Write the C-alpha cells for this entry.
Amino acid sequence: MRKLVRHLAAMAAIVLAGGLLSATLVRLAPGFGTDEQQLDARLSPESVEALRQARARARDIPGFYLHYLGRSLRGDLGESRTLNRPVRQLLAERLPVTARLVGTGLLAGWLCAVLLAVGSTMARKPACDLFATLLAGLSLSVPAAVLALLFVFANAPACLALALVVFPRVFSYTRNLLAKSYGLPHLVTAYAKGVGPLRILVWHVLPVAGTQLLAVAGISVSIALGAAIPVEALCGIPGIGQLAWQAALGRDLPLLVNLTVLVTVITLAANWGAELAGQDLGTREA
Amino acid sequence: MKRMRQFAWLFLALVLLASLGAGFWAPADYAMQFRETPNSAPSRVHLLGTDELGRDRFSRVLYGTRVSLLMAPAAALLATFLAALVGGVAGYLGGWWERAAMAVTDLFLSMPWLFLLLAVRAMLPLNVSPITSIAVTFLLLGLLGWAAAARVLCAGARDLRDSDFVLQARACGLRGPRLLAIHVIPNLKPVLAAQFWISIPVFIISEANLGILGLGVAEPLPSWGSLLRELESFASFGFEACKLVPLVLLVLVVSSFQIIIARDEVYA
Amino acid sequence: MKRRPLALFLFLTLSLAAAFGQSGGELRFYLHSDPKTFDPLLVADDASETVRYLTGGVLVRVNRRTQQAEPELASSWTTSRDGRSITFNLREHIYYSDGTPFSAEDVAYTVQRLMDPALHSPTGDSFRSGASVVNTRVVSPTRIAITFPAPVAGLDKLFDQVAIVSSRSTNRERAVLGPFYVADYKPDSYVLLRRNPNYWRRDAAGRQLPYLDTVRLGVQPNRDIEMMNFRRGEIDLINWLDSEYFDRLAGVAPAVVHDAGPGLESEQMWFNQVANAPLPVHKREWFRSTNFRRAVSQAINRADLCRVVYGGHAQPAAGPFSPANKFWFNAKLRAPSYDPTGALRLLQQDGFRLEGALLHDREGHAVEFSIITNAGNKSRERMATMIQQDLGRIGISVHLVTLDFASLIERITESFSYEAALLGTANTELDPNGQMNLWLSSAENHQWNPRQKLPETAWEAEIDRLMKEQASSLEPAKRKACFDRVQEIVAEQQPFIYLVNKNALSAVATSVANASPVVLRPQTYWNIETLSLRIQTASRH
C-alpha cells in the first residue's frame, strides 16, 4: 500500500513537471503568440492588435500554468486556440479513437511478435529463423508514414501500420530472450527428462523471460503512441496523434500541455505497471 | 545464416562505397534541373527517370544515401552513449537513483518530441547550409532517442547488479566506478552494441518520417526522407515503380543491418 | 399488351426527371478542417466560409460568373452620392428556416452586430471606414438605410459577405435564409446541411430551390485521401484541385476535371525592407535597391514555373491582380520577361559584378540570401527550388528554408528576422479596397515594410495617396485609373515580385448536373441551389 502511494505521488510529481516543461517549451518556441489571421488583409489594425493581446495573456508561463492547474481541478481543461473548442471535449472525442488504434495495433503487433518468436525458437530451424528475421527487418525498414499511406491505398485499417511498427522491436527482443532462456541448464535437464515443449515454454521459459518482456511492454506503448502521430496525421484519423500535430503547428498551448500530461500519465502507467507486474513475477519465482 | 550475414555486409559496403563515390558515379549533379523532361520515365540518360523538377533520380538516390548513411550512425552512437549513461548507471546504483533516472526517462518519453524538432528547426539561423541543418536534425534525434533504450539497459544492469559474479566481486572489495567499469559495462556491451546497430535503421526511418511530414532536409540536398515524399501521392494514383527505388533501397539497407546484428545479443 | 403503357409511363417519367435534373439526393464533398465557428459574422477560415456560403442569405450576391452584383434578399438598392449611405428595398414574405419572418429589423441587427468594434470580425472590418458608429434606420419592414461614418468604396458588393442573422429567433445560428441549414455536426467527421424548407428562391418553372436534399461536408485534411475518395465515388467534387492531381485525373477521367482559367490567386516573393530588421547593413541595401529587386525578378523564369510546377495550369503574373479580375486588372501590364543578361546589367548599375561564378556587391560581399516559405506546400517548395537555380545562374546563392506556418508568421510580422519570403495571396474580393491593409505603408500587412510612421520612399507615398484617393471616390473610372497607376508603380518597383497566377482547377463528378466551375470562390458550388444529381450508379474515376 505504501509502495502504491509512493508510486502515485511520484507519478503526480512527474506529470506536473511534464506539464510545466511542455508549457515552457511551447512558450519559448518560435511562432508562439502568432495567429494565421494576422495575414488577413481585411483586418483593421485594432483587430490585429486584439489578436496579439489575446495571445499575449498566455506569455506568462507560471501564471498560465497555475491558472491551468486550478481550473483542471474543477474539470476545466481550457480551450483550444486553434480549434476554438474546449480541450476536455476534444480529448473525450479523440481519445477513444487513438485508444482503439493504438490498442489494436499493440495487440496485433505483440501477438504476431510473440507467436513468431516462439515458433522460430521452438522450431530450431535456421530457415524459420531467417524468415522471421527478414519479416521483422522488412517491417522495421518501412517508415510508419509510408506504412500509413500503404494502408490508406489498400483501404486497410490503419492499426495494422502501428502493429507493423511495434512488431519488429518486440519480435527481435522476444526471440533473443527466448533463445537465451532455452539455453539455461535446468531447461536442458527438463528436455532430457522428456518434459513436453509446451510445458517447458509455459512453466519454465516464459516466467524467466517475463520480467524483461514486461519492460519492453511498457516501452512499446510509448513507441506506439509516438508512431500514432504520423499515422493519424497522414491517414486523416481524428485521434490524439492528429490533434498533437495540429497543436504543435498552431502553438496551441492549452492543448499541448493537456496532451503532454495525458501522454505522461499513459507512459508512466504503462511502464510502472510493467515494472510492478515484473516485480510480482520475480517474487512468485522466488 | 553466416552466408546471409556475409551478403549483408557486402551489400552495405557496396551501398556505402557507391554513395561515397556519388560524385563519380552520378550522371548529374543532384540539384541539376532538366526542366524539359520533368517526371520522365527511366531511360538511358536518366536510369531512374527524373523527379517533378527534372532532377535525375538516380543521382539524388546516390547523394541521399550518403547523407542518411553517414548521419544515422553518428546519431545512434550519441543515443547509445546517453542510454548507457542514464540507464546503465541508474540500474547499477539502484534505489533512489534508479527511480529518479527512470522518472526522468519516462518524462522524456512523454515530451512532444516532434514539437521540439519543429521548434529547434525554426530557431536555426536561416543561412546555414543544408548539410548543417541535416546534421542538427540527426543530432536532435540522437539527443531524443536514448530514452526507450535506457529503460531496457536499466533492467539489464539491475539484473547484473544482483548476479552472483558481481556479488563475488563486491565481496572481494571492488566498489563503485571500478565495479561498474570492470564487470558491469563489459557485460552490457552486447546489449549496447545491439542497441547501437538497431538505432541506425531507427534513425534513418525517423528522418524519413520527418521528411514525409515536411520537416526533413533543406532543398536541394536529397535524403531518403525527401525522396520518399514522392510516394505521398500513390494513395490516390497508385505506384510508379521508379519512385519505389528509394524505399526498396531503404528496406534492403535496414534489413542488412538486421541480419548483421548477432543472434545471441539482447536488444530493444 | 399491358407492359407497353407501363414501359411508356416509365420512359416518360425518367425522361422528365432527366430533363429537369434529378431533384433530391445528397451532394458530398470535403472541408479540409473543422469549421471554427457557425456564427456567420465571425467567419475567418475556409471551412466556416463554406458553411456560411451554403447557409447564409445575403442582400446582394456577386454572380461568380459575371462578377456583377445581383439582387438577392434585397430586390433593389441605391447608394448615396457621397458613398456613405446605402438603402435597401427588401423582398417580402421571406422566412428563416425556423419560420421566423425576415424584415429590415434583422438587417439592422446584423449590421449593428457586425460593426461592433469588440467583435473584430474580418467581414466587419472590410466595411470600416472611420471611427464613428454605423447608423441603421429602419424605414419600413422592407426598407432600410445604412449610413457609414465615411465613404466605403464598392459598398454594395461587400454585402455579398454578410449573412443576415435573425434578430428574433431563439436559435440564431441555426435559423438561416440560405438554401441549406446546419442539421447535424459531428466534430472531425462531418457537417450535414439540410434543405431549407422556407428558402425563398424558385427556378424558372416555379419549383422551389434547392434541388438537393442534403449536402454532406466531410472533414478530411489529407488531399491524397480526398483524391482517392473522389476517384472511388465517395465524394462528388473537389473544389480546389492541385495541378499535379488535375493532370493525373485528366488522364483517367477527362470529363470530371475543369480548368476555369487564371484564378485570382497569385504567388509572390518579397525582400525584407524593414529599417530595423536584424539584417547585415549590406543586405538591407541590396533589398532596398529597386535595381536589385528588378534584376532578381528578371532572372526568374516564370514560364518554367508555370510549366514545370503547375503543368501549364498557371500564367506568369504581371501584378497583384490577375486577368480573372475583369474590371480591375491593368491590361497594359506584362509579366517581366526572363532575361538573365538584362538582370546582370541592372545589377552592374548598382556596382554588382560577377567574379567567376559568384556575384559580389561593390564592397566585395558575395551575394547570398535565404528565402523562407511554408513547409508542406509542395508547389511553393518546388518554385523556391527553381528560383534557387535561376538565381544561381547569375551568381546569386540562395538558401531555402521551409518553416511551419507559425514560425513563418512570427518572422514576417513580429521579429522581421528573415531576408526574403515566398508566399501566396488568395484574393477573395475583386475590389482593391479589400487590399488597403496591404498597400498602405502604415498598415499591418504591408509585408515588405509594415507599420511605417511615414512612407519611407516616394513611391510608397504615391501608392498611399492613390489608394486613399480610390477609396474615397465613387466613380468606377476614376478608381480604376488610380489603381491602374498603383499596379504600374508596383511593376516598376517590384516590392512584391509576382510570380504566377494559378488557374482555378476543380473536379466534379459527372453525376452532378448544372455544375459550371468558375474562377471566383467557391468555384464549383457557387450555384448550389441549382445543382442536382443525375440518376446513375456510383462510378469510379
The mean pLDDT of chain A is 81. Residues 2-73 of chain A form one domain.
